[in-house]
């Protein structure tokens, strides 16, 4: 699999990470509100460019929270560079707001199992959106252990891992302001975790 949802519910070390007080404190400060963890997404990009990366999308197309209530924290577990590929952000694109949500059919087609079974190499991961004019890409290059935060409505995508031997593994943690309504998602199974 190139991604796996909610491994923090199965691996104690990842549960410790999503509830880490240092991360929670930074998330609270960035949001100006106490946040709650709801979801994690672990990407495993194999060497050799087998995985397609993701199409341009906004993470809030899944939970569909009120604007500005979703914060994403990316934990880079391997080096991110031109060879291993990585995250491409479109700075200030979140100021445009949430672009139209995908339809229920598009969401189903975009699910990992559907894409793998029925549309292999046809439909990349992410609810694809058109990048508005004026949005310029910023390619992330950083070392293993880097932590980044970005707005749930920021447009982003990722590129293939072209390294012949190195993996690129990234864990994304999703937080919402406490009390925020969100879609659970039949595939994502989002739910609020109690903070320590």
Beta-strand portion reads 15-25%
**What is the molecular shape?**
globular
Task: Give, in spatial order, the strands making up the sheet with the most strands.
Answer: 1-2-9-4-7
Helix/strand order: EHHEEEEHHEEEE
Biggest beta sheet attributes: 5 strands, antiparallel
Mean pLDDT reading: 88
Q: Could you list the spans in which at least 5 consecutive residues all have pLDDT below 50?
A: 115-125
Question: Roughly how much helix do the residues carry, as a percent range?
Answer: 10-25%
Beta-strand segment tally: 9
Structural class: alpha+beta
Topology readout:
Layout: E1 3-5, H1 12-18, H2 21-31, E2 35-45, E3 54-57, E4 70-76, E5 87-89, H3 104-110, H4 112-118, E6 138-139, E7 147-151, E8 156-158, E9 168-177
Antiparallel strand pairs: 1-2, 2-9, 3-8, 4-7, 4-9, 5-6, 5-8
Can you characterise this structure?
Mean pLDDT is 88; it is low at 115-125. The strands form 2 sheets. A 5-stranded antiparallel sheet has the order 1-2-9-4-7. The protein has a 4-stranded antiparallel sheet with strand order 3-8-5-6, with no helix packed on it. The protein has helices spanning 12-18, 21-31, 104-110, 112-118; strands at 3-5, 35-45, 54-57, 70-76, 87-89, 138-139, 147-151, 156-158, 168-177. The two termini are 31 Å apart. It is 16% helix and 24% strand. The protein is α+β, with helices and mostly antiparallel strands and 196 residues long.
């Amino acid at each position: 699999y190139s991604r796996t949802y909610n491994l923090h519910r199965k691996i104690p070390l990842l549960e410790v990470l999503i509830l880490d007080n240092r991360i929670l404190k930074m998330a609270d400060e960035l949001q100006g509100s106490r946040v709650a963890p709801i979801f994690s997404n672990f990407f495993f990009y194999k060497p050799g460019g087998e995985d397609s990366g993701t199409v341009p999308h906004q993470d809030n197309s899944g939970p569909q929270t009120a604007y500005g209530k979703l914060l994403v924290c990316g934990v880079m577990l391997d080096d991110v560079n031109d060879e291993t590929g990585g995250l491409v952000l479109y700075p200030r694109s979140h100021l445009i707001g949430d672009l139209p949500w995908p339809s229920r059919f598009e969401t189903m087609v975009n699910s990992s199992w559907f894409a793998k079974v029925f549309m292999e190499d046809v439909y990349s991961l992410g609810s694809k959106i058109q990048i508005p004019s004026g949005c310029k890409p910023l390619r992330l290059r950083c070392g293993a252990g880097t932590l980044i935060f970005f707005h749930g409505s920021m447009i982003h995508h990722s590129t293939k891992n072209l390294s012949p031997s190195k993996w690129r593994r990234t864990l994304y943690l999703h937080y919402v302001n406490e009390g925020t309504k969100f879609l659970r998602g039949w595939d994502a199974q989002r739910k609020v975790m109690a903070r320590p």
